Amino acid sequence: MLLLPGLLLVLWGDPARCLEADEGFAFQGDLRHIAVTHGSVYVSTDERLYQLDHGLSPVRNVTQRGILTVGDRVEFVRVSQKAKWNATLSVNVLLPMVERETLISCGAIDECGYCELLDLKNISNVLYAEQFLVGPPWRSSASVAFLASVRGQASAETYILAAVQQDGRPVKSRCSSGLDAVKLHNTNHEQTGGVFSSSGQHSTNSIHCQGAVEFLDGFQVDSVLYLFSNLPSSDKGNQVRLVWLEGKSNKLQTLKTLRGATLSVPGGGAGARLVASSVIPGGPQVLWSGVFSVDGGQRNTELVLFDISPDLNMDTDVDPDFSSIVGSGKEQQTPKTLEPKAVLFRQNFMSAVLAVRQKAWMVFFIGTGDGQLLKLAVDMNLHTACTRVLYRADGDRRVLPKLHLDQVDHKHLYVPFQNQVKRVPVSKCSTYATLQECWSAQDPHCVWCSSVRRCTFGAECRDSGWLSIPDESQQRMISFKVAEDRTDQITLSIRTHLTVSRDALGNFACQFISTLPFELCRRDSAPPQFPQCSCILTNGQIPAGGLNVTVRIRLGTTQLLEKLMVSNCTGIRGPPTSVLCHQCIEAGCGWSKGVCSWASQEATNKSACQLTASGMNFSSPEIVSVSPGVVSFYGRNHAVLSGRNLDGVSKVRLHADTTCNPQESPVWNNTGVNLTFHIPSADNKGVVKVCVLLPDGSCHGNAEITYQSSPSCTGVVPNRTWVSGKRKITLKGSHLEFVEGVSHDSAVQDVISTRNNSYQNLTYETPESDHVGIFQSAVFIRVANETLACSTTITYYPNPEFTSFTTTRIGDDVHITIQKKVDKLEMTPAELRVWGVQEEKEYPCIMGEKETSAEMDFFMCEIRMTPNAEFQRLKINYGNETVTLNNKSSFLLFALIPIVLLPIPCIVVLVVIVYRHKQKKLTVEIKKVMDDLELNIRNDIRQGFVELQTEKADLMENVGTIPFLDYKHFASRIFFPESESLMTLCIKDIGQDVVQVQLDECCQGLSRLIQDKFFLTSMVHTLEEQKSFTIKDKCVLASLLTVTLHSDLWYLTEVMEALLQDLMQQSSNSQPKLLLRRTESIVEKLLTNWMSICLYGFLREAVGQHLFLMVSALTQQTARGPVDCVTEKALYTLSEDWLLWQAQDYSSLKLKVLFAVGSEAEVSEPLEVNALSCDSIEQVKEKILSTFKAKFGFAYSASLRNVCIEYERGGSFVPLEEVDASSEVIGEVTMLNTLKHYMVPDGAAIKVLSTKTHRPLSPQGSLKDDENFSGKYFHLIDPDVDPDQRRNPEKKKFKLKEVHLTKLLSTKVAVHSFVENLFGSIWGTPHCRAPHPIKYFFDFLDSQADGMKIIDPDVIHIWKTNSLPLRFWVNIIKNPQFVFDMQKTPNLDGCLSVIAQAFMDSFSLSEMQLGKHAPTNKLLYAKDIPKFKQEVKGYYKQIKDQPRITASEFKDFLQETSKKHENKFNDAAALRELYRFVQKYFAEIVEKLEQSGAPAELTEQLHHVKNLFDGLKSCSWN
């Protein structure tokens, strides 16, 4: 089953991807046009043209990229996906001509028109092409084109009517001096002027518009052409205009028949606009429906019905807005105004409409801006049925204006979105299980098929009797009325509101049944005649309590049963309330002037009761507000309704225009002015009306609730917490304002309340967990009664461990440094509250900054104005936990020294004895070892050769969600790679990055100062001249400047360019090729940061996935062979330094893993896990849990450290531990136990236990927690000791490192495709355009080289290479942890270094001379480098040939980038750190300014800033 989709994908060879069968088709580019014929769908996107079958399965596609050649004849030739190209054909007209079997495709190439005639059955076959403009020369959503048939002198002619958007000014393009509003173009060569021409027998003919015009739709009915448009005007508002044209003998005569009308929109006024349009086929009148925006926006929309039948008696060519160019000389007349027949439907955000006729009904399919497809049926009297939701998108994706009907079966619609087309059934007939449900749906497409007893499409029930809804909208399928004539004769009349087939009509009968002892109906009652039957009551009276009557109706083979309660109409008495009215109507009686009476000939329905209710005079309930007023379609619990006179309210009713049945919700906590109720879930998005119900059934008040999309959560920051809980966490996603609570699957507390909810963020505090160790917890959000899983997890770590503190008095203040063991919690100072305790009195300590070393975190805080210099203890609070630190001495350290040193002499003596014994044994065994040596080496070489020849790159590419870091964490790791304190200081905490913080006065002063380019460049040059200003200082200063100027990237770019020009002048006299090679100046680090900011979007969208896949492939390949737990060396690696060549023989094992479930020693079904005989027990656990997650899609309930395993041997289970009494010990070094040690065979059963229910098998969580792990234990690499010291000696094969170098090549082969994809994504150019920053900066380097008269192309190549690949991409390749939330192992680091070296060798201009002594990392990719070099050469050339980016274009790009990432950094903290450098070198900066002739105001401003900082009252230091 997997072969066919895979084969289709290969043959398709396109970035588009298939969705579910018969569901839709998605594209990577934006959808431009869609056209439908019988059996085919044609779709044009930005860069491709697709041919699909009617089920939306791909048939063919062609690229719109190609080579444009200009000579005697302009020709556009398409090229393959990877070939070079210089032009893109943007399609603006897509029209199938079925009778000629051609597809007309017209558009523009660089604002010059180009048209093609394509084979309708095979779009890759171009029948004819010509440079000709049909339609707009640029992308326009306000231009239309359609085929128009004109009655010619001999036969009918077909033309293209193209209506082009106008903005009120002369419209020009690069290849056209002027564009008219409307033209008729030829469709074949036989027509006068040739194909595509707009000229006729006499002249060029067109219609022009006096002002701006936006065309919305056009079509032809009979011989009349209809064209709809909006005419926006600043003084008159918007007009919706209709133009009629008659299809006369030729183009000229057709255009001269121009007549116009204005559409009047109810309640729209001057702001109403036409949004979407559809003609209603069939009927004597030309009916048309339009979606109008009442106020000109997108929200307030309504569907309006018009009769647009043309008045052909009107004068022609006298319209004030449109006229033919030839002119008629007639006086202009005010156009006719068309009034609407009805407003059919009101709904927010309607964006598309398609109308069809089904029997006597009109059916409207309505698309919305929030991704819904609605169905509205309207009967012949323009009464609307209940609206149904046919489709609802997950998010708020807008349905594009043009819907199309499947021409094959007319049972499906094509619904276009921005980059997707969905195929949606026009009805849900099959979902209605009973006749009543089928009828109540009021769907003209559905019938009840009697033979199969189910609801189907009408066309599916042709050979059988069927029943369907009548031609007019009805409230009930069967109605009845009770009438009394003058002779006191009571007649019960039954009427069926159905349309039936002839088979059913011929067999119509009624039977009246009651519990009376005599016959109910008189024999002279009229015989049944469809659709009615009647019964004259025998008794002539109705009992006081009413009469129960059952009516059995037969229609063909279908039987209907209706139970009635017949009452005496005159006996229904009381005050004229709504309840009494409904009781009267439901009894079959009539209601007139507030009194219940016998039914008359005219039918009375429940609408009469609404008038009764509104006419009553009493203190009815009023609704003031409903909170919340906006919810997701899952609803909301505990909503509050406020109002007046609410005491008697029993329920809240919600009724939507799109549903038939209102929903009712009970109330509680009713105080008369407030009450609580649950907002129920809804099937669709939109607005519902709210009223409150009284016990008598009347509903009062009028409020609204809006249903929107469901919330989704995609990220969590930070993504880790301590086990005691209450860490502040921010969830990222959409519609998070609807979330009522958050839960973790491993938490003690069920649901945690949230706070600070917004559309994209919400904040909550993590719950406490009773798990032990490190483990991951799934995150869920609670919305009403639904629990939704987030696409991210959070990791729990043990609580942080604070060890000690020191105090230092500075003036009246005490500075305290708190020490904490390094962990992975990334705790910030803001998460701590600290008090110093002296004599039971607590002194608050104000938190400052945090510093980190390899083993300790140091938190600084300050107790101000305190007489105490020493504190007995500290009280530290974080989350739920409060810990106390005592002031301890360090005498324990000295007590431990003798204990540690005492065993050393004994160990030395033992080693000497072992060595002598080993030497004696070696002499005896040397001969046998030498005999085996050659055989072992031969086998190793053969095994490596076989493996290399049979290597398959079968690595898994499905790696799940890519854990991208957010922008600010990515940028801070680039800016401050060696200073975690600065990294943390300069980014805002969670919750602050959406708020713009006002800088204090001193920081504002410094900010204004560095906004002066003269000052900033002078300061940079001054600092770089100081010998004490180190390279590290230069990098820090450059990054601080980047942070403070991040909001104005254009200014930062200008400063960088100025500093680069100065640097080039320094370097040009000596070695220009060394420019930008290292980071030895401020501007070089500035360039690194600038590239990182500007290329972040390209990195995430184009490169990030390939980088992550390559890293994942390396990790998977490494895990296929032995990995030494202690040294982390691996058999499969790219780096010779990390090659595990000492590994002994191993075998692959398939383990049957059983998971303990329940408490009765029950186990799960076996899970097959691949392992190696040399795997340590910890490695086996890791592989078991990894396989479990890959198999089931979620993590095992217990974490690695909470899992123990047992091996089944002889009917019992043996615990498997890393170290136990049977472990091999050599001296003081213990070998980690492996599967081979326990003699676990292939196919063995392994049971997994959780330490929640079983005691841990080892008192230690993990041996790796031991600080001296690598010194106490060994795994696959033997310690360098005498074999005689082994407790369990075994013979091991002699190994040579050089024999295993083939493993490097095996690894290279396995991951090579991933490396190639990564490199290709970096130097690939989507849309044949390099990212803006690369093009802009390379052009800058070219211009500088021209200015410096550098003609050596090698110098420019080196500059570009040092600027981009060396400065940015190598940094990313070697440090994926800058981009992703991941850990980088030493072995992975070695592999990435080899790949990074190959990447840089691809940019080198020199040829590598490699010999037998060349390093393996150079030899590994030696054969690939020439190919890569050619690709790099083409990449550089393509960038150079690309059109130059103007300064304004790049400025817009930078402004957009700044805005996208605004408020991400702590500007105040960066400015304070920046001032440290200003303060240190203040005198030198002032001297430099004076020498440079700086304005006096600049120096005064600098002194003013110094005074502000020195004051420390308005700007204090941390």
Largest sheet geometry: 8 strands, mixed
Distance between the termini: 65 Å
Total of helices: 29
Content-based structural category: alpha+beta
Rg over CA atoms, rounded to whole Å, is: 41 Å
Instruction: Report strand %.
Output: 25-35%
Strand order of the largest sheet: 48-50-53-52-51-54-55-49
Mean pLDDT: 84
- Quantity of strands, as a count: 78
Shape: globular
Helix content: 10-25%
* Low-pLDDT residue intervals, each spanning 5 or more residues: 1-22, 613-617, 889-897, 990-995, 1253-1260, 1285-1291, 1513-1518
How would you describe what is shown here?
- The protein is globular.
- An 8-stranded mixed sheet has the order 48-50-53-52-51-54-55-49, with no helix packed on it.
- It is built from 29 helices and 78 strands.
- By secondary structure, the chain is an alpha+beta fold.
- The two termini are 65 Å apart.
- Helix 8 packs across helix 19 (1302-1322).
- The longest helix has 48 residues, at 903-950.
- Mean pLDDT is 84; it is low at 1-22, 613-617, 889-897, 990-995, 1253-1260, 1285-1291 and 1513-1518.
